[in-house]
Fold:
Amino acid sequence: MSKKAEGETPVTQAGQELEQQAVQEQSAGAQELIELSGEEFEQVKAHIESLTQERDEMKTLAQRVQADFDNFRRRNAAVYADAQEEGARNVIKALLPALDTFDRALENAEGVDVAWLEGMEKVQRQLLESLGKCGLRAVPEGGQFDPNLHEAVLQEEAEGVPSGQVLQTLQKGYQVNDRMIRHSMVKVAK
Structure:
């Protein structure tokens, strides 16, 4: 033995021997061979192939289910958004007669108390602001007749006015988020 080996303590030598024994046991277990007949080999091979195929089918199925769920989630979000917008449009449609009543009341407010008139204008303005936050916009008055925005209920001869020009708005039209909810009723020049 070398001097180094002589100087080692028995604990260190015992630890090295245990370590070498463990390595030998592992390599012996890894090298254990099992002999199979040709028929047994084919059975194991067929079983491995069926398990691989089953795994691939399950993986494909899981991917399809995930894709279906993602599509469902997107469709559901779109339906939810459409339902909310439709609900807002329905509420606004139900309030349009109240806006029309405000317009008529303010147009015919001759000889009424100034404080009452200012109060009515303030309530109308607040209602329009609140509905504006929900996407309500009035259709612009005047201009050239546009069948996408206007409904012509009267035609009248007017000198110096080109044909198709809106002469008067009889009832205001409104849009909600670029979607028409009521066309303006207008009088158009012949």
